[in-house]
Each structure stands twice: as structure tokens, then as C-alpha cells.
């Protein structure tokens, strides 16, 4: 049982780390001379423009930003609740709340990555000065990490439900 708990703790911390990296790092959409994420767009690694209210699809970007931040916060809260429940509740009652919060984090990261997937072309095309650069890009590793974090948080949430029944 201790090995299982250690594995779940490491898995959960890995999920949180992936969410932090995907949220913070500037590599959701990359190309030869630019990289972009949900916070800024950089051309030639020196000319960075923050995405602000002047950005044409700012509300869509804000939705992605908010759901990624919320997923990271929920994942961290789920870990703290897991640790508290580990020592406070009797067997058979553990980890339900942790599982629910972790699955909510999973849902949030799925929503963020899905919105970005659906609207990525519109987000960058509406800024005419960046269109020639962003049309030749590809999804970056932060975007891929967001989808990997989705899978990790989903599996983690299910593991907490399964672990609830263990004695």
C-alpha cells in the first residue's frame, strides 16, 4: 500500500509540474522566427508583445488563461486535500473529495486546450501584422504538455476513486 501511495504522490506532483510548465512557458505555437502562447507573442526572440485588451480575440485568450490557471490551482488544492485526508479520514471514506477536485482540474485543462485548438488560427490571424509569421507555425511543447497534463490529471482522479476502495 505504501508503494501505491508513493506512486500516486509522484504522479500527482508530476501532473502539477506539467500544468505549471504548460501554463507559464511561451511555446504553445512556434515557428522559425516566433513563438506564442496565451500570455505573449515573441518575434525573433527579442520583440515580445504582451497579449492585452488591444488583442482582437482577447476574451478567448482570457478564457484559456483562466482555465489553465484554475486547473493548476485545483491540482495543487487536490494534493493538499489528499495529504490532509490521508491522515484524517478512516478507510473507505478517503480521497473522494480529492478525486472530484482532480477531475475538475482535468476538465479545466481540457477546456483550455480545446479552446486554444479550436481558436488558434483565429487568434493569430486577426492580428494582421503577425499573420505571415503565425501561418507557418506548429503546436509547441507547452501545448502538448497541456494535453499530457489532461491525461495525467484524469488518470490521477480515477486512481483516487480506485484507492478509496482499498483497505
TrEMBL record:
It is found in: Apical cell membrane; Cytoplasm, Perinuclear region; Golgi apparatus membrane; Membrane raft. The chain crosses the membrane at residues 63-83, 95-116, 139-163. The keyword Membrane applies. Pfam families: PMP22_Claudin. It comes from the Eukaryota. Residues 1-16 form the signal peptide. GO terms for molecular function: protein kinase binding. Its main location: membrane. It is a multi-pass membrane protein. InterPro entries: EMP-2, PMP-22/EMP/MP20-like, PMP22/EMP/MP20/Claudin, PMP22_EMP_MP20. Keywords: Cell membrane, Cytoplasm, Golgi apparatus, Membrane, Nucleus, Signal, Transmembrane, Transmembrane helix. GO terms for cellular component: apical plasma membrane; Golgi membrane; membrane raft; nucleus; perinuclear region of cytoplasm. GO terms for biological process: cell adhesion; positive regulation of integrin-mediated signaling pathway; regulation of cell-matrix adhesion. Interacts with PTK2; regulates PTK2 activation and localization. Interacts with ITGB3; regulates the levels of the heterodimer ITGA5-ITGB3 integrin surface expression. Interacts with P2RX7 (via C-terminus). Interacts with ITGB1; the interaction may be direct or indirect and ITGB1 has a heterodimer form. Belongs to the PMP-22/EMP/MP20 family. Functions as a key regulator of cell membrane composition by regulating proteins surface expression. Also, plays a role in regulation of processes including cell migration, cell proliferation, cell contraction and cell adhesion. This is Epithelial membrane protein 2.
Amino acid at each position: 500500500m505504501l508503494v501505491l501511495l508513493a506512486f500516486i504522490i509522484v504522479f500527482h506532483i508530476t501532473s502539477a509540474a506539467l500544468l505549471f510548465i504548460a501554463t507559464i512557458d511561451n511555446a504553445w505555437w512556434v515557428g522559425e522566427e516566433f513563438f506564442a502562447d496565451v500570455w505573449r507573442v515573441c518575434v525573433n526572440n527579442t520583440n515580445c508583445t504582451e497579449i492585452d485588451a488591444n488583442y482582437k480575440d482577447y476574451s478567448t485568450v482570457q478564457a484559456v488563461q483562466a482555465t489553465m490557471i484554475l486547473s493548476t490551482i485545483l491540482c495543487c488544492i487536490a494534493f493538499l486535500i489528499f495529504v490532509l485526508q490521508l491522515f484524517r479520514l478512516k478507510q473507505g471514506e478517503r480521497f473522494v473529495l480529492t478525486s472530484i477536485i482532480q477531475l475538475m482540474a482535468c476538465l479545466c485543462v481540457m477546456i483550455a486546450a480545446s479552446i486554444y485548438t479550436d481558436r488558434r488560427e483565429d487568434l493569430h490571424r486577426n492580428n494582421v501584422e503577425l499573420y505571415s509569421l503565425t501561418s507557418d507555425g506548429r503546436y509547441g511543447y507547452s501545448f502538448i504538455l497541456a494535453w499530457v497534463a489532461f491525461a495525467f490529471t484524469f488518470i490521477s482522479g480515477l486512481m483516487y476513486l480506485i484507492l478509496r476502495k482499498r483497505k
